[in-house]
Amino acid sequence: MPDLAAPYLTPRQRIALADKEKYTDALAWATREINPTVALLEPGDGNYTVYDFALDRLTTTDEAPPAETWQLVVDNAEVGELDAIGYQAEVTYGHHDVAERAYRLGADNGNVYAMAFLGDLLKDNGELGEAETWYRRAADTGNDYAMTRLGNLLKDNGELGEAETWYRRAADTGDVGAN
Question: Nearest-CA neighbor of 104 among 91, 93, 117?
Fold first, then answer.
């Protein structure tokens, strides 16, 4: 947690953070109950959960997290979280490099949504061949979003027959957006 806090601190605060006793005291303060049901941080199994009102405060700012924070978040995320992290980095903050890293890490480890979102990012960057590869991998798992996106890519490339096949497969899953 000190690494996550460091980018937000002044040099003097970083020095204090390195002091084990001060860090322990600060963590004890943050995990102390404000009332019988609320603390800023709730200890978990090797981690902490931030209380909702503290998260609400963070979401009211347009300021993007520092690069060091993104690095730590991506490096310490569960595979199933990487698509959401990438999406947040890409859509909310315009950090396409962070998004691509999160999507690739998730996609390489089986996160189907990360595969599809990586396909979107690559398509937007003009990397159509690799985008198609990731759309296919996600579509082959039954992901209707990827099926539709693959159909769109194929249609744009003039491969209408195969595009129709993917649209039909997506429609068969209940995807009402399948063209």
Answer: 117
Structure tokens at 111: 């996160």
pLDDT bracket for residue 39 (50, 70, 90): confident
User: Phi then psi for 39, rounded to 5 degrees?
Assistant: -140, 155
Retrieve residue 125's tokens: 């960057």
Answer whether 42's CB lies under 8 Å from 31's CB: yes
Q: Domain boundary at 19, 41, 61, which?
A: 61
Structure tokens at 44: 């978990």
Q: How many domains does the chain have?
A: 2
Alpha-carbon span 14 to 25, nearest angstrom: 15
What is the 3-state composition of the chain as percent helix, strand, coil, each rounded to the nearest 5?
A: 70, 5, 25
pLDDT (0 to 100) of residue 110 = 97
